[in-house]
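Annex B. Sample input.
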Amino acid sequence: MASKGGTLGSKRRPPDQARSSLLAAADRLFYEHGIGSVGVDAVAAAAGVTKRTLYYHFPSKEALVAAYLEARDGATRLAIESTVSEHGARPGDRILAVFDHLERWFATPSYRGCPFNNAAAEQPGTEAAAIAARHKAAVAAWLSDQAQLGGARHPKEVGAQLLVLVDGALNGAQVSGSPEPARSARTVAELLLAKADIEVSKRGKR
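Annex B, continued. Sample output.
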């Protein structure tokens, strides 16, 4: 007789721990190999749980993918906020700090492109693509808010232009395997901020 989540007598993981293990495994496998190339069997095995346990927490692969992207969204925002907080309160410096964050990320061996761009390309028209679109909209809104605080006359336009630079750097680094696209995008961002009359401190300039 099998118990729920494992064989009779096996040590059962607490529900929260099992869910966390599944999300960690999904994050690693989906990001490294692509969503379409990884099945739920592989995720369950990597998490050390049964497929039944996986479906207890996530009723479908689509739900698991959505949870993976939502977790990535939260982690990405925290990482950017951590980097930005080191650059003071000046909006121009905070905007440029995003490109400094990207440069450090691109220099890591594990970089495989933007997980949201990857998901939208792999699964157009799905909830995954919708989450990716919401993430991009949130980034654009934050950039626009910073531009407005910096005194830009057309902050939404500046935010949209900065997002293009961010996405260009993300894709360029994925293809080239180099952090150079982040540096190039930062240089162009400095010019864009200057045109919009958004001040950058001497510390923020390169």
